[in-house]
Amino acid sequence: MADCPRRFWCFCMFLKFQNSRKVFDACLFPQVLSAKAHAAIKTRSEHGEESVKQRKKMLQTLPSQYVSVGHYELVVRGLNITVMKVKHTENLKTFHWHPKVGIIGSQEEISSQSKSIERQNPAISGSFESSVSFSDTGINSDIIDVLKEQEITEPTVIQKDGIPTILAGHNTLLTAETGCGKTLAYLLPMINQILVWQPLLRERQLNSPLGIVVSPNRELANQIGVMAQKFSRKLMFTTKVLTGGHTKFKMMNPSFEEIDLLVASLGALSKLTTTGIYNVSNVHHVVLDEADTLLDDSFNEKLCHFLRKFKVSLLQTFNTLTTLPSGVQMTLVSATMPTSLTDILSPVVETESLVRVTSSQVHRLLPHVPQKFYRLGKSQKPAQLLAMVKQAVARKHPVIIFSNKSSTCDWISMFLNESGVKCVNLNGKMPLDIRTGKLNLFQSGDVDVISCTDIGSRGIDTVRVKHVINYDFPLYVADYIHRCGRTGRVGSAEGCHVSNFIAGLREVELVQKIEIAARKMDTLPNVNGNISRTIQYRTMKKMEEKFM
């Protein structure tokens, strides 16, 4: 820097100050760099001018901000600035960079290379990396026939590994990235078990299921129920979906029917089993879908109380057609799982008995879904949102917009509708009938824009979504993973992406952690959500009991 003009040095100091308070576009998105084609880049090293290949290799490692000032190129990363001289030529050309492609070139070159990368998407074609068929997993041939009718012919990676483990009777921790087929990974072996148990329990009383799937919300319970009913109609077993809403009426006027598989939201299930309307004495398999949500502050105490009704065994044996298992098998399923799982589950299940089935992409950003971060003032967010949504609607790209509060969710919907963009809203404060109706409008394609809170981020199969916008950046890394997972799912079209609005200092710190993990191609840090408060509460309670 010694030979730089003083004002240029001052400009560099200004950039340092700016970069310390501003979030630049993270290297998670194809980025336009202001490099010049055929430019002879000279570094201040003793080696002098480098070869073209060496220069391209250097450019591949460029950080998130690369700007041009006069005859200089500045590479800005954090508070560090590297200055390189540039010899201009008449032939100018813009270079692009894609984090997964890992090359520098023209937009056309990047486009062709990125298509190759997208074909390797682990949530789509990458899931079918082996020649294993459903028959190899050990499930009933009748179940496979129903799968073929739905044009599902090959298991995904998590299904290939998870189905045999669950069929063998192990308590299972099933963790994989969003949208990779986890629901079928536990549902198929569970249906297989029910078909075996049915003849052995013909005389059981009404409202006495053989298996239970627990979900944190009504929308996910309904979605799982619809999927299970596609099999129950063909295979002659009964599926019941139980969700909250009008719970007092259900308690006063209960219905009694034959039930083999009960899919339920936790709140309604807890109340109706406690009152004895549903009998759990014949249950031999319990699945916790979106287990990380069920284990956090808002559900944990209620969940533990419910699970104490069951005798969870270390290992069941389901390969016989003449005997029933002596205890209950437990399966936990989620796209994220807390590192402190042992502390959470220890009161209700022997965690050493859990067999972990995990994909290579768990707790990672999906490599086929580009993401971009926008540093905005709070007053700039509405205009930026409107511009993005109008562009997406013009292209017929369905959009899901996330916010942290119900009031913000409702305001976004009102703002977009008043601006001429048809939008529905979805949050936990809505009555059940309204929530269901609005979600159906979006899922059916009648409306292409939905504004929601995190209630729409967990487990719901939004295969048609092409653009996720985080209007409010999430409070926890786990929530960020689930929100991003609403796009780029198995069966989704190409061209999915995520946009994030960054407007506060707390958000900047979380973004930096995500960006570092993305640069290193590493797992995202601290995927615990607000579960840590549960552990702290329990620890404090034990200490109080000890000293009192």
Q: What is the percent of helical residues? A: 25-40%
Distance between the termini: 66 Å
Low-confidence stretches: 15-52, 55-121, 123-129, 530-548
What's the tally of helices? Answer: 18
What is the name of the CATH architecture of the largest domain?
3-Layer(aba) Sandwich
GO molecular function: ATP binding; hydrolase activity; nucleic acid binding; RNA helicase activity
Pfam families: DEAD, Helicase_C
Keywords: ATP-binding, Helicase, Hydrolase, Nucleotide-binding
Motif (Q motif): 132-160
List keywords for this structure.
Rossmann fold, six-stranded parallel beta sheet, nucleic acid binding, alpha/beta, 548 residues, nucleotide-binding, EC 3.6.4.13, ATP-binding, P-loop_NTPase
Topology:
Blueprint: H1 6-21, E1 31-33, E2 40-42, H2 52-60, E3 65-69, E4 72-77, E5 80-87, E6 95-97, E7 104-105, H3 107-118, H4 141-149, H5 157-167, E8 171-175, H6 182-197, E9 211-215, H7 218-235, E10 239-242, H8 247-252, E11 261-265, H9 266-274, E12 285-289, H10 291-294, H11 300-307, E13 329-334, H12 341-345, E14 354-358, E15 371-375, H13 381-394, E16 399-402, H14 406-418, E17 424-426, H15 432-444, E18 449-452, E19 467-470, H16 477-484, E20 497-502, H17 505-519, H18 531-547
Parallel strand pairs: 8-13, 8-14, 9-11, 9-12, 10-11, 12-13, 15-20, 16-18, 16-19, 17-18, 19-20
Antiparallel strand pairs: 1-6, 2-5, 3-4, 4-5, 6-7
Motif (Q motif): 132-160
Domain Helicase ATP-binding: 163-355
Pfam family, one: Helicase_C
